[in-house]
């Protein structure tokens, strides 16, 4: 393998290890079980667009930093209004659906296998509180879980990746960032981390110009490729 020795593996969480759309869909259906599939997809898109837009406003300095919990509450209110739902308890439950995301089928076993050989660091745009719920619900195994909340910004701001560098106590080039989102890996590259793209149905695939160190079909494939690291 062309990679130098890796001292720790850093994982994106949302989309890479857990199936975020499926969890949000479940929350939308619980809000209003009468919604058909087409309407659910429209509302899911509304949620996703809001989160992406508001995080970008934070990154651009247009909006002061707010934790993901507030963005989720905003998204839930937008979805509820679009669905014609006005039960405050149901809307509050929808806002928490982002903490009840199912892991991908290979996630739990893959993390356990990699944890036998590497320190594992979770690095997520989710808030500290949301990340705790996510980890518990999906059964994710970490040696350390870090939230972008500690940097008061969002990936791909370099300050978020620096959290993992600081906690590990190792140079960036000795850390391997794993994600299903090419934009996330590009952000890690800018700080000098090594990168591994893992294919997921909901990810952001690499472009022809991306040059990541590893490409894996799933975490089992990643563990195989790191076998001689």
Layout: helices, strands, pairs:
Layout: E1 8-11, H1 20-31, H2 37-59, H3 68-83, H4 88-95, H5 107-115, E2 120-124, H6 128-138, E3 144-147, H7 158-168, E4 175-179, H8 182-190, E5 194-198, E6 214-216, H9 219-225
Structure description:
This protein has 229 residues and is of the alpha/beta class. The chain has helices spanning 20-31, 37-59, 68-83, 88-95, 107-115, 128-138, 158-168, 182-190, 219-225, and strands at 8-11, 120-124, 144-147, 175-179, 194-198, 214-216. A six-stranded parallel beta sheet has the order 3-2-1-4-5-6, sandwiched between helices. Helix 2 runs antiparallel to helix 3. The chain is globular, with a radius of gyration of 18 Å. The N and C termini lie close together (7 Å). The mean pLDDT is 95.
Give a summary of the structure in a few sentences.
This protein is of the alpha/beta class and 229 residues long. The protein is built from nine helices and six strands.
